[in-house]
Amino acid sequence: MESPPFLNCLLFFIVRPLLAISFVVSFVALWWVLAWKLVLSHVPLYYFPESMKLLIVQDCDDPRRFRLKDF
């Protein structure tokens, strides 16, 4: 005995895509939690501005160095 056609359509267009989407979301969430616990929890994601060192860029006025503005 076959199932009614509307049930096949419902299964094909609604249930299967929902199952696929939920599988992908759960798969990504599982690996994200695993990566967060193992790797990303040890990486500092932000720095306080006071603790960052200021990089001082000194202009080099070496006459041997070619500058585009001198061209």
How are the secondary structure elements laid out?
Layout: H1 5-38
- Helicity level, as a percent range? 40-55%
Mass-distribution shape: elongated
Query: Biggest sheet: strands, sense, closure?
Result: none
Unreliably modeled segments:
none
Average pLDDT, rounded to a whole number, is 77
- The share of residues in extended strands comes to under 5%
Secondary-structure-derived class = mainly alpha
Terminal Cα span: 86 Å
Order of helices and strands: H
H/I helix tally = 1
- Rg over CA atoms, rounded to whole Å, is 29 Å
Number of strands: 0
How would you explain this protein's 3D organization?
- The protein is mainly α.
- Helices cover 48% and strands 0% of the residues.
- The chain is built from one helix and no strands.
- The longest helix has 34 residues.
- It is elongated.
Give the gist of this structure.
The chain is mostly helical and 71 residues long. It contains 1 helix and no strands. The relative contact order is 0.05.
Question: Which properties best describe this structure?
Answer:
mainly alpha
